[in-house]
Amino acid sequence: MSGATLITSARLYGQDPADLLLRGGQIAAVGDDLRSQAAEQLDEDVTVIDAEGLIALPGMVDLHTHLREPGREDAETVETGTRAAARGGFTAVHAMANSAPVADTAGVVEQVHRLGLESGWSEVYPVGAVTVGLGGERLAELGAMAESSAAVRMFSDDGHCVDNALLMRRAMEYVKSFGGFIAQHAQEPTLTAEAQMNEGEVSATLGLPGWPAVAEEAIIARDVLLAQHTGARLHICHVSTAGSVGIIRWAKDRGVAVTAEVTPHHLMLTDELVTSYNPVYKVNPPLRTRVDVDALRQGLAEGVIDVIGTDHAPHPTQAKECEWAQAAMGMTGLETALPVVAHAMISTGLMDWRRFSEVTSTEPARIYGHQHQGRPLQAGEPANLILVDPQAAGPIRPESHASKGRNSPFAGLELPGRVRYTFLAGHPTLAEGELATSLTGRAA
Amino acid sequence: MRHLLSTADLTRTQALRILDTAEEMTGVSAREVKKLPTLRGRTVVNLFFEDSTRTRVSFEAAAKRLSADVVNFSAKGSSVSKGESLKDTVQTLDAMGADAIVIRHGSSGAPAQLAASDWSEAAVVNAGDGTHEHPTQALLDALTLRRDWHAAHYGEASSPRGTDLTGMRVLIVGDVLHSRVARSNIWLLTTLGATVSLVAPGTLLPVGVESWPVTVHYSFDQALAAGPDAVIMLRVQAERMGGSFFPNAAEYARRWGLTEERLAVVNQLRLAETEAPALILHPGPMNRGVEISAAAADSAQSRITEQVTNGVSVRMAVLHLLLTGSRGHHDDDRSSL
Questions:
Q1: Do A203 and B212 touch (CB under 8 A)?
Q2: What number is the ipTM of this complex?
Q3: CB contact under 8 A, A203 and B109
Q4: What does the pLDDT look like over A182-235, one tens digit per residue?
Q5: Are strands A154-155 and A4-12 parallel, antiparallel or unpaired?
């Protein structure tokens, strides 16, 4: 193993420059001019990275990732998905349960967890299904998944809504006892039976069955009341409407233990894009209107929405190269999250890089309960951090992504900011913008 | 333009060019030898993913009257039913040298996707896509309306060529939510200067209709009291009946059907200030006794059989303009309409 890494003149959280010394998987020191100290005090090899102009941030944590393995290895694997995570600046990802078989038993979550450990590009935390087979009828073995070596704390039927109110209540109460929480995919199924896109002016003209905002908002309203009633924690996945932001604000004002997530794409794209009928824009929840985008941005800036979750959803080409109604829902997101959020939130002046680090790292880690992710850039903390070039620009090129998925709605767009280095436990998985080696010694 | 995908894309000039060409084509269809040599050696593929014998036969007759070779490709019983993708099907047809692809598809947007893709160089004609649009149906409706509207004002002997529908008031009745005919008509008739109103149960109007250039009624009787010049009745699909859109066919017929009682009201209507009677249209196939009574369908005001005849003329015009504007399979984007 290499010795220490000295990062010089990185702007911590986009603010004042400082040097960072990484050693033994930790941030050993933060300060001015550590170079001279290092030269005097260290006799081991020190790799020096000149980070002049780069911003140092805590490693990003994604609560919402689809790694597709087991079952859909043609779309993504834990290996390729975590390479994408490293390129995107994520040091931890949470793998949603809609694999095949579904992650609804200890066996499946342990498999995913083990695959993550073996890959070593990013930490992988499996999310357990709430109900057996995502069927919405019977609770999955939540306790067994919590006690497994994967130590699952987050449970979600993502892709499906736990629409049965009693089952949702019981799930929330059940996982409370071991510090777990339910992440709800809010979508009232009877209101969205054949839905293809946001219901509104655009769907009316395009003749595509509409997906009303109320289908999301009705479930969120119900669930925050359930959370209040049971005293349990609730997390809302991929909030997409202005009305949802309003309901969550109301719930937080009343002290409900609810947290909320927004995707990068819902912070930027609108349903006007669907006029092309290009299925790359087909996603669940659907792209909404400009009014919704503005409300989501405001909600994230104010803290009504707590975290960015990518909902990274890779699909093979043929699943998108077909008629809109037949196309799969979802977009890739790990490798574009930082530039998209920088474009939507930082370039617009709605947030600074410190707030960015909260919504992409501190808060998601706190929601899950991680002790070693989402930590501040201070001496003695785990060395999970990234270096970002905020000036880097150029078009997004999905064909260059490490994900197997090419279904990026941002292809060709000029977006600011690129991750140059990703350090996982002090080890550079990404160096100078290229995948280096994983923590387990794998090369890309 | 290279393709006909949506009437929303058509300018007034382009729409009139199609209608005027269709008038000329009507002359051809009235001759003993109903044939022009203009598309000799060109291949028109009718690519039908949905059953629609009426529309397919109309396009086939149109292409044949222009001397084109016609290939009918029905998804049923073909490789499509074995799981072949739209892309592969289209690339196969393209490799066989299709100059125009007339596509009917159950998915909204399939023709637009085909036109935007690099799967084929052929001109794409939308023959009805999902609940999106059916542009040639709207064009044949406009041709039908224009002929009567012009004759009422200027006499039968005068040619309607070059004229539009300025001042005409058209009422569209029924399942607007699921109707590609309604959408195409709203854009086209408005472009041609007509004023469009809709009447439907609230369940069969799309959210967002308030942004359309139309007046919305819920009561057919109130809408008729406003004195429209033409009434376009939409077909009610069997699968909507007995569902949650409206209680049953009988209640639909009572409230939104062109019953004999309402026919008596329509009988009193005239085309603007003229003596000519108001018009009744239906895109077919009809559910007699549901959205339209037999008496209304067979009345003197009905233009339903003329619509079928005009359909061939309009489709001849569209194929002629799309395929004679640009020569050859790989020509550039030269405006032809």
A1: no
A2: 0.93
A3: no
A4: 999 999 999 999 999 999 999 999 999 999 999 999 999 999 999 999 999 999
A5: unpaired
